[in-house]
Design a protein that fits this description.
6 helices, 238 residues, 5-stranded antiparallel beta sheet, 18% strand, 3-stranded antiparallel beta sheet
Length: 238
Amino acid sequence: MKGSLFNPRGNIKKTNLLFITLTWNSREIDLRESWESELSKRFNKWITAVRMKYGKVSVLRSWEAFESGYPHVQVMLFFHSHEFNTFRHGRKFRIQEKEDLQCGYSSHIDVQAMHSWKGAVNYVGKYILKQLSNEEMGDPHAQNKQMLTLSLCWIFRKQSYSMSRDLVDLMQTLHNSKSSLVQLMLNGDPVHEHVDWTFIGVFSYKELGIPPILETHEITPDSEFWARIDALGLSRIT
């Protein structure tokens, strides 16, 4: 199976690719300080402890907001020199060594074992791109949660995601070692000949005389969203 790390139906299942959620205890610290300083500080302390314990680890990390506004972290980890024993738990895969990954983090962590690069990238992609699934597009609750995450990242000047420098090349190599990295056309077909690109400018679809290909929807924040903004002592921007 292309990009597979283990056979989900096999007897022996080991993986070195994990998807982890670091949760947050809102009773420990207030909302403002959580985003301003503690979020980055606690994550950096945790990932440093993980690397000290397991060696080289490549990271793809995204900040997210709970409905309460408090932060949590979604992170994909690739362990270069360590594998974990996995087992099926419902529709997901877990690891037997989950407690070993606590590494001094004070709140609960959730750990999933990834059995393929394709599945891992698809799973984490929605968090990195802050993209709603088809089921969530018509859900005002999901839309407000997405807006809350984007707003808080902007308010507190947080880079919404970060990635280890070697991860892009690593994903390409392990996903399909037989394929070479080539430029693709918009339809996904590879470009087999040399092409020189020249930047002309950015134009609206009206200027180009073409119909819009995306339909946008205005999202109106509810009273609970503004209450959280007011609780932070921030000015409303309308």
